[in-house]
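Quick one:
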Amino acid sequence: MLFRFLHSANRATEFYLGNTLIEKSQNCSDFNMSISRVKILQRVSTLLAFVAVAAFAQSSALQIARESAQSRPRGAPQSDEAGTLWTWRNEQALLISARPSTSSKEITGTFLQHRVNAGATAVIALEKLGAENLRDDKSGLALRWFNRDGQPLGTHFIAWHNDDPLPQFVMNRSGSHVVCAEPAVARATFLDQTGQVLAQNFLFEDATYSNERPLFLAASAEHFYVLSQRAPSTLETGHAPVLFCFSLEGQEQWRRELAPGTAGNLALSPRGNWLMASRYTVAANGVVSTIAIFDTQGHAHATLSGLFRTVVFARDETQALLLDRRQLRCVRIPQGERLWQFALTSKEEMFVAAAATHDLHSYIVLAAQSNFKQQRFIFEQARLLAFDHDGQHQFELAIPEALVQPALAISASGRSLQLAGDGLFQNYKLIVPAAANSTEQ
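Output:
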């Protein structure tokens, strides 16, 4: 369309100029005036061309428009990838809402952590038990999970003391199985949907108690993954982090050692095809860190430098966006090749969250200034940034409200972005380029 417009404008200029040259032989006295008219027409044509190019660039870029804002429950929000099941956790209760516009199901209790499973079928939460609810002298925590309507499904009691790190937990996509891992003793407990223990495995032989042992979990439809290590690494002794793969019932499928250091983080692609495991070492000359990319059979495909706080995979899982505090890196999966990167220029600003759009290789990222106030981190002067597949900064939108514990999700239709925080929920319309629409279809 843009080419046809420019071509038509040029043809009009050529036609007018040709007629003017013919008229010259008929009336030489009008030639100078005709040439002036040609110059004016050429300038108008050039101006229209610039306008057309600008309009075309605007229409081909992903844009964000705010649609609505609602007050929501106080607490830390979480949702599934498509934002179909939102939850808020505060000091008194866990609130579950199938859609932010509907009423929430409130479950009272002192919940310390919670997660929504990838299939949006269940919510799992870690509750600190009061003295009146303790089953025995050792049980200090209860892992509870509920369906999307808030109905209880299962419970698992955990021995815990105040000096222990909190257990980690995750549920598979369908919500049929749960794994609960205790970092202090390097133990993983596998449970079915009702809370029945299927297996309990110590990750390492002769592992001693440690309240500094790192441990990370991930779950696909058919497997659980654990990244941990026998003991914390020090400058004198470097222990190698180990990546484990277990069946849903707790049978070990494989394990892979990373380079010596400290386990940094673990991420699994939404379809469960690729794993990214990071580790780092602290040396006299600085921090050395690497990220290993594995398939689900445990085959290593690439190793790249750096760390990540969050990973967002493209919908086709051929690339991933790695978020660090002030830098974005987009890499090809599974080769690990860097495709593009973007860094914030302000030292006060940081990347907070991100989501992948439905046109495959575009991303929306939340950036803000972080300030510690009233015993919590508050993100101010926030803005949403859109990047295309080449890393071009397409669009940005300022958010005037201060945010606490913000979370992002893109709807299943791919046409709206949801931003939730402590006490708020905002919905944004994604204006997707026509080329992306045709790709989706």
